[in-house]
Amino acid sequence: MPTPIILDCDPGHDDVFALWLAAGNPEIDLRGVTTVSGNGYLEHTTHNARVALTVAGVHDVPVAAGASGPLKRTLTPASWIHGENALGGPELPEPTVPLDPRSAVELMADLLEASPEPVTLVPTGPLTNVATFLEQKPHLREKVREIIWMGGSTGRGNVGAYPEFNAWVDPEAADLVVRSGLPVTMVGLNISHQALITEPVVERIAAVGNRTGAFGVELLRFFCSTYDAVESMPEGPLHDPITVAIAIDRAVATVQRCHVDVETQGEFTAGATCVDLHDMLGREPNVDVALTLDVDRFWQLVTDAVAQLD
Ligand code: BDR
Ligand code: CA
Q1: How far apart are CA 72 and CA 58, in angstroms?
Q2: How far apart are CA 308 and CA 240, in angstroms?
Q3: Terminus-to-terminus CA distance in the chain, angstroms?
Q4: CATH number for the domain including 60?
């Protein structure tokens, strides 16, 4: 039976590929999409999620908008990577996928309540919606099978020496989620920087020959151009779909279970994930930290999913 998931995202170029992987892979039952502010303001990320599903011809998945800002902080969208509308590059078609009138938290709650089996939450942005859901709907915790999150890092950051963007936008939300007691897998920069968008990868996606692939290539070209400009990485890392790939097949990544804290105070380190890989603290492990990626398998999953869409 396919794994039921709710994808909570802030599209964002790599979020779009996470959406497409979830919609196009037969092992995943994409029950709902919720949006959060992060890469862009909520109006942009919500619009972009609807655009991504429209391009792919996915009209049967509800899309609901969530938090317009972090729990306690002011949002700084990642326009330096994703552009002013959070999805720079291609001309965006007017979405035909409607916006569900419910909030992200209400849609999550309705989907979990209606589901006979627990559902996996896959957040690929700041954890504001997920944290709010856990706070507001504690009775539905047992309906959450696990949380597979793109965020954090075992080492370097991308908005400072240590903090990664999704954790940095809303450290208080990330702190709440890693301390929730629910099974959490962290897909951080240490693994996402293994998913590099090389020229052969772009050519394989172009060779699919459908509308989604052509749109995807425009996204990848823009994303790599900003990664080149900002981080001197002309082969940018396609972070977010690794979460969905793990939901499809855990063998795509190795993980190490260990204790993780999220720094919410530091002057230079707010949003840093302190990953105790060597058990220096002797504290209870709370996170499965993804370490190494089966790169070929990952790109095969992404390419195959794009080929299933319009
Ligand atoms: C994360 O931040 C965003 O820019 C990407 O969409 C990804 O979720 C990488 O740090
Ligand atoms: Ca994202």
Answers
A1: 34
A2: 19
A3: 24
A4: 3.90.245.10
Distance CA 123, CA 147 (A): 7
Domain carrying residue 285:
3-307
- Tell how strand 253-262 and strand 287-293 pair up: antiparallel
* Residue 217 near residue 244 (C-beta atoms within 8 A): no
pTM above 0.85, yes or no: yes
Tell me how far apart the alpha carbons of residues 55 and 149 are, in angstroms, rounded to a whole number.
25
Please identify, by atom number, the ligand 1 atom nearest to the C-alpha of residue 15: 6
Residue whose pair of structure tokens reads 């306690």 in the numeric block: 72
Mutate-to-test residue for ligand 1 from 8, 10, 149, highest number of ligand atoms within 8 A of CB: 10
Q: Is ligand 1 within 6 A of the CB of residue 240?
A: yes
Residues known to be catalytic: 239
How many whole angstroms from 35 Cα to the centroid of ligand 1?
14
Residue whose entry in the numeric block shows the structure tokens 């539905």 = 140
Q: How would you write the pLDDT of the chain (310 residues) with one tens digit per residue?
A: 999 999 999 999 999 999 999 999 999 999 999 999 999 999 999 999 999 999 999 999 999 999 999 999 999 999 999 999 999 999 999 999 999 999 999 999 999 999 999 999 999 999 999 999 999 999 999 999 999 999 999 999 999 999 999 999 999 999 999 999 999 999 999 999 999 999 999 999 999 999 999 999 999 999 999 999 999 999 999 999 999 999 999 999 999 999 999 999 999 999 999 999 999 999 999 999 999 999 999 999 999 999 999 9
Distance CA 95, CA 93 (A): 6
Total of domains in the chain: 1
Q: Which has the closest alpha carbon to 238: 119, 82, 95?
A: 82
Q: Is 166 in the pocket of ligand 1 (CB under 6 A)?
A: yes
